[in-house]
Specification:
binds pyridoxal-5'-phosphate, single chain
Length: about 375
């Protein structure tokens, strides 16, 4: 069955006369549970909720392994680090991954005696640091620089040396790249981004290749209380049905924009464009081997900070906002946060579902205005 078909029904209950397709969110803290409570499928909502169960069933079907949802992408990231890493363990991180994950390890986990080694995502450089590691954390394509590493090659190397591999799949999404099929032990994502796609909630999930690992991930969620609200989970499940159509339009738009601006590069304004779908992009060859779509995010490298800011101020259809993957086209100059190793003129452009002609015209007028 095609993924486009799966997403429309994944996790929905069997049809029953007069019942909704996707039952509404269940709002509860405790559930009725008498006696020793063992017969009640749900007892207390920090441990489980029927709205979670349905969305988790959908994610498990798409990921190809049991899934556990969290109140945010960072809560999902923290669950893998927390469930796996112990004092003295070594973790291999990308130098260029989502800053929140790097910050979490650099503060709390290093303080607890976890040792960290880093290498860039590009050229699968983390592969050379795998010896003696407990966990290899990959993020491909990396956010925001959109470099790509070879998941299969790193997994093979890591598993031969007893290391586990986790892939942060947020930028690609499960419809574009399947980390568990590529051999990873953990597939992690912020469902705040393209998975839910409407910029209206925070959510995350972890899926595992070995079903025995899910219990510890769930235990972590229960104990730290990283429990998502049922309304957010229900909205994400509702949004899942359109994931394929959203990505189809958004990636087609992103591809058209990347090709369009690549023909308009100039040393004084827009100097470079990064998109894994461009045949001459450094990430393309490996991306083509492990991704079925190249994503909704483009890197625009302007000559300097002033050019980047001027472009963003002139663009009318590009809303200035952080985050990415939503149906509205948004962008930001990443160095306004100072946390990524990108140049001052680097703009992360997240392409939405608007008509491509309008987006291209708007980008052209903004480029002309700064030329
Ligand atoms: C946004 C993001 C996260 C964190 O997700 P939140 O939902 O904001 O907590 C983790 N990894 C990547 C790659 C992200 O882009």
């Amino acid at each position: 069955m095609h993924a486009a078909t799966r997403v429309t029904r994944a996790g929905l209950p069997e049809p029953r006369e007069g019942e909704p397709f996707l039952p509404g969110p269940v709002f509860a803290a405790p559930f009725h549970a008498s006696g020793d409570g063992k017969d009640a499928p749900y007892v207390y909502a920090r441990t489980g909720n029927p709205t979670w169960t349905r969305y988790e069933a959908a994610l498990s079907e798409l990921e190809g392994g049991p899934a556990c949802i969290f109140s945010s992408g960072m809560a999902a990231v923290a669950a893998v680090f927390g469930a796996v890493l112990r004092p003295g363990d070594r973790v291999v991180l990308p130098t260029d991954s989502y800053f929140g994950a790097r910050q979490l390890v650099d503060t709390f986990f290093q303080e607890m005696g976890v040792r960290v080694e880093r290498a860039p995502t590009a050229n699968s450089a983390q592969r050379d640091l795998v010896d003696g590691a407990r966990l290899v954390w990959l993020e491909t394509p990396s956010n925001p620089n959109l470099d790509v590493c070879d998941v299969r090659a790193i997994v093979e190397h890591a598993h031969a040396r007893g290391a586990l591999v986790a892939v942060d799949n947020t930028t690609a999404t499960i419809l574009a790249q399947k980390p568990l099929e590529l051999g990873a032990d953990f597939s992690v994502a912020s469902d705040t981004k393209a998975m839910s796609g409407h910029s209206d909630l925070l959510l995350g999930h972890v899926a595992v290749r070995d079903p025995e690992r899910i219990e510890r991930i769930r235990q972590w969620r229960t104990m730290v209380g990283a429990a998502p609200g049922p309304m957010d989970v229900w909205l994400a499940h509702r949004s899942l049905a359109t994931l394929d159509v959203r990505l189809e339009r958004q990636t087609a738009n992103a591809d058209a924009i990347a090709r369009h601006v690549a023909r308009r590069l100039s040393p004084s304004t827009l100097t470079a464009v990064r998109y894994p779908g461009l045949e001459d992009d450094p990430a393309h060859a490996v991306a083509a081997c492990q991704m079925t779509r190249y994503g909704t995010v483009i890197g625009l490298v302007f000559a300097d900070r002033a050019q980047a800011d001027a472009f963003l101020n002139h663009a009318k259809l590009i809303t200035q906002a952080t985050s990415f993957g939503g149906v509205h086209t948004t962008a930001e100059r990443r160095m306004r946060w100072g946390s990524d190793g990108v140049s001052e003129g680097f703009v992360r452009l997240s392409v939405g579902v608007e008509h491509v002609d309008d987006l291209l015209a708007d980008i052209d007028q903004a480029l002309e205005a700064i030329a």
